[in-house]
Amino acid sequence: MKKKNLIIFGTRPEAIKMAPLVKAFKEDTTFETYVCVTAQHREMLDQVLEFYEITPDFDLDLMKPNQNLYSLTADIITHLKPVLEEVKPDYVYVHGDTTTSTASGIAAFYSGAKVCHVEAGLRTHNRQYPFPEEFNRQLTGKIADYHFAPTTLSKDNLLRENVSEKNILVTGNTVIDALLFGIEKVNTTTFEDSEIKMLNETLDFSKKIVLVTGHRRENHGEGLLNICTALKEISAKNPDIQIVYPVHLNPNVKGPVHDLLGDEKNIILIAPLAYPAFIWLMEKSHSIITDSGGIQEEAPSLGKPVLVTRTTTERPEAVAEGTVILVGTNKDKIVEYTNQLLSNEQQYNAMSKLHNPYGDGKAAQKIVDYIKAL
Ligand code: UD1
Ligand code: UDP
């Protein structure tokens, strides 16, 4: 009898980071592998499914406009019951720290399947930051039978929580598998009529590009206002740069960002980019300002300095390496560090080291081999 896998994800970053695992398991015919998407995100999830050519076996289609954590959590658990009863998986794979991963972990545990946590063990040790992600990740760590930790630091976090060492594997982060595959595909494909063509026509690449993203719940409101005010100030002081901001579709982000920055001349607000266009633009950028988890992991592979608009991170490795600086949502600090990167070549060069502490791009295969050997 073949071992049966069910891989569950729902948001853009989970889809990007689970795509290499889907591919690796589907290529191994000793497994029967099914994919279920909760569609906690819709458009932003579909962009990734299209790029990685993944057709889910089950699509719960749960996203609602401006959804809340209570009903989303309940909906995921309830709607997964029939899927789990139909597939009867031996192993269920969940990723990271989203509502989809934790709610799916709970449902999978109820079904009796073994729960495999991909990107396990990252910690800020503060349940309010990031909210609710730190709590989600800790909870999924309690539910999981097997823990795939990206780094030895994340493994150590799990050991300190008394997870048995034999149930932890350090794999690197699958985001690097996804990135390497993505770069290869971008470099070998002609994207007619694509976002890349649109960016090529709209942006002036003789100017430095500062790429911005942001969506964290704890930054909604005041934090986001500070970030936008900082961007206005940076733009005013540096008329020769372009600030490019693909705006997250969360109405608590999209509304204020367009209200505050919609009329600025050298701030270009665009819709979320599909993954190939985004990594293409990252490569072309001078530096990045973001509160995203995934971008903190990708940017060091591309040698791009990152200013992180958070006061704490569960990804301290790149901070220690010196490619990432935590600037929080303090307006003056964001302005000061961005201006330094724009004007101080020595500091810029020191931060744009091409080194990545998050893996070698073979994380997905390591997970497949581990499960095979059980
Ligand atoms: C979610 C995750 C967060 C992750 C982020 C990645 C939780 C609690 N939050 O936050 O950990 O870092 O995704 O982006 O799991 N929307 C759309 N279309 C989309 C996606 C979102 O319209 O394709 C809008 C909808 O109105 C939706 C809202 O954004 O209700 C919020 O989506 P949600 O997944 O709840 O929160 P995020 O802020 O995206
Ligand atoms: N990303 C993308 N298009 C965009 C912005 C980001 O494809 O317009 C990718 C980015 O390369 C990274 C992931 O989305 O892999 C990060 O997702 P997000 O910031 O939404 O979530 P987080 O990583 O913070 O959970």
TrEMBL record:
The entry's keywords: Isomerase
InterPro entries, sorted: UDP_GlcNAc_Epimerase_2_dom, WecB-like
Domain UDP-N-acetylglucosamine 2-epimerase: 23-372
Keyword Transmembrane helix among record annotations: no
Gene Ontology molecular function: any one: UDP-N-acetylglucosamine 2-epimerase activity
EC top class, as a word: isomerase
Listed transmembrane segments: none
Keyword flag Isomerase: yes
Enzyme Commission (EC) number: 5.1.3.14
Family: Belongs to the UDP-N-acetylglucosamine 2-epimerase family.
PANTHER family per the UniProt record, alphabetical: UDP-N-ACETYLGLUCOSAMINE 2-EPIMERASE
Record-given protein name: UDP-N-acetylglucosamine 2-epimerase (non-hydrolyzing)
Species per Swiss-Prot/TrEMBL record: Patiriisocius marinistellae
Gene field: rffE
